[in-house]
Amino acid sequence: MSDENQKPKKLSGMSSPQPMVMNGNVAQQWKKWLQSFKFYLRASGLDEESDGRKVVLFLHVIGEKGVDVFNTFGKDEDNITYDELIKLFQNHFAPKVNLTYECHNFFTYKQDENETLDDFACTLKLKSQNCELGQLQDRLVKIMFICNMHIKYNYIREKLLLEDKLDLDKALEMAKEMLASRHQMNELTAEQNTVFYNTSQSRSRSKSNSRNVSQYSQQSRQEVCTRCGQSVVSHFNQSQ
To answer: Is the pLDDT at 21 greater than 70, yes or no?
Structure first.
C-alpha cells in the first residue's frame, strides 16, 4: 500500500473550533480548546501543513483575545514554529501547577449528595491528572471513589471493600448495579405497602359497616311501639 493511501482522508466542510473562552478557569478552557483545535487539524488534514500555515490558522481560530495574548509575547508570527507557539500559550494559560495544592484538591474531594456515581468518578479522574501519581493514578482514583462516596451509599462501600482485585471501571459497574437493585427493591416495597394499605382500608370499611348494621338492629329491638307498648321488632313479628 502506498504512502498516499495511508494518509488520513480530509473532511471537507468541517467547521473550525469556536474562539477560546477567556474567563472562569482559564487553564481548563485552554486545555479543552487546544484539544479541539488539534482534533480539527487532524480531521481536516491540516496537521500536515507547514508550520507557517498552522501558526496563522491557530492565531485566526483562537480569536481576538488570543491574538492580544500573543502580542504580549513579543514574537513575530512569521518567525516562530507551531510547537514554539503552543509552548508560549501553554506557559501563559497553564503555568506549572502547585503539586501540593492539586493533591489536596484530589485527596479531600468527597461526593456531593446530589452527584451521580458517574460524575463523581469522572471528577476524581480529572482532579488526579495534575497530581503526578504515575502508575498509582488508577488505583488511587479507585480508592478515593470507594472511600469518599456519600454516606447514603454506605451499603455500596461496604460491599466494594470486600472485593480484593477491583479496578475503577469494575467498582463503578458494581456500584451502579447495587444502586439499581436498591431502587427496584424500594419500588417493590412501595407497591406492596400500597396494596397492604388498600386491603386494610377495605377491611376497616367492612368492619365499620358490620358494626353499623349491628347497632341499628340493636336499636330496633329496644324501640317501643307507642300504641301497644311492645318492642318494634315484636310488633313487626306479630304482624307477620
So the answer is: yes
* CB atoms near residue 139 (< 10 Å): 13
pLDDT tens per residue across span 136-162 = 999 999 999 999 999 999 999 999 999
Longest CA–CA span in the chain (Å) reads 129
- Number of Cβ atoms within 10 Å of the Cβ of 220: 12
pLDDT-derived band of residue 25, with 50, 70 and 90 as boundaries?
confident
Cell (9 digits) for 183: 431502587
Closest CA to 220 of 207, 228, 209, 230: 230
- Return all residues near 52 (Cβ < 8 A) that are at least 6 apart: 78
Nearest in space to 43 (alpha carbons), one of 66, 65, 63, 15: 15
Distances (CA, A) of 210 to 10, 60, 203, 215, 218: 85, 88, 11, 9, 12
pLDDT in tens, 53-64: 999 999 999 999
**Single-letter amino acid, residue 151:** I
Cα angle value 179/110/132 (rounded, 5°): 115
The amino acid sitting at 130 is N
